[in-house]
Design goal:
By secondary structure, this protein is α+β, with helices and mostly antiparallel strands. It has a single domain, classed as Alpha-Beta Plaits (2-Layer Sandwich), CATH 3.30.70.100. It has two helices and four strands. It has a four-stranded antiparallel beta sheet with strand order 2-3-1-4, with helices on one face. β2 and β3 (47-53) form a beta hairpin. The protein is globular, with a radius of gyration of 11 Å. The N and C termini lie close together (5 Å).
Length: 78
């Protein structure tokens, strides 16, 4: 993760993403959290791109996605 300006930029693989409802659910759950700067769900690629800073952690992001009913299967880019 890039900590040069205290922001982290990650891409997570979420194989359960299949439609706009999935996109809205994940983006809607993550976007309001303090420290989330940007969330983009790619339905076709089944990925979630998140730009975040303290106090958010990778574990909080994964947990929030899981709370919406989706499984994070891996970290594609950090």
């Amino acid at each position: 993760m890039d900590n040069s300006n205290n922001q982290n930029d990650i891409v997570l693989q979420v194989p359960d993403i299949t439609c706009n409802h999935c996109k809205s659910s994940i983006e809607g759950a993550l976007s309001p959290l303090a420290g989330i700067k940007n969330v983009t769900v790619d339905i076709k690629g089944k990925t979630v791109h998140v730009v975040f800073e303290f106090p958010i952690t990778l574990e909080i992001i994964k947990s929030t996605i899981a709370d919406q009913g989706y499984t994070v299967s891996g970290l594609l880019h950090d």
